[in-house]
Amino acid sequence: YYGDRESDIAMTKLFGGFGPEFYAAYQESWPMEPGYENRLKLYQLYHILNHLNLFGSAYLGRAMRLIRDINHTSTAG
Q1: Intervals of the chain under pLDDT 50
Q2: Residue 66's domain spans which residues?
Q3: Rounded to the nearest 5 degrees, what angle is found at the Cα of 44, between the Cα atoms of 57 and 25?
Q4: Other CB atoms closer than 10 Å to residue 54's CB: what's the count?
Q5: Is the Cβ–Cβ distance between 7 and 43 less than 8 Å?
Q6: pLDDT tens-digit profile of 37-54?
Q7: Are 32 and 4 in contact (CB under 8 A)?
Q8: DSSP labels for 24-77?
């Protein structure tokens, strides 16, 4: 596995586990590339769709919200 750090950080934000101090220190140490906040939801959608596939409809609402957010961001920008 070769991970993409943006995807890995997005996963931690999706399911919790780290506090704001971690993300501030990470950003200070190795800043994210411009536009990361826009890509964040795409990375999270991947994991939510995977969970929808594995665990069922409990993840459907969250997937739909992310899709709407991504669509809104792409049409607004």
Answers
A1: none
A2: 5-76
A3: 140
A4: 8
A5: yes
A6: 889 999 999 999 999 999
A7: no
A8: HHHHHHSPPPTTHHHHHHHHHHHHHHHHHHHH-GGGHHHHHHHHHHHHHHHHH-
Distance (Å, rounded) from C-alpha 28 to C-alpha 35?
Answer: 16
Measured between its terminal Cα atoms, the distance across the chain in Å is 33
Q: What is the pTM of this model?
A: 0.84
Chain centre to alpha carbon of residue 17: 14
Task: Say how many domains are in the chain.
Answer: 1
Token pair of 40 as six digits:
């964040």
User: For residue 49, what are its two tokens?
Assistant: 């769709």
Structure tokens, 23: 């993300």
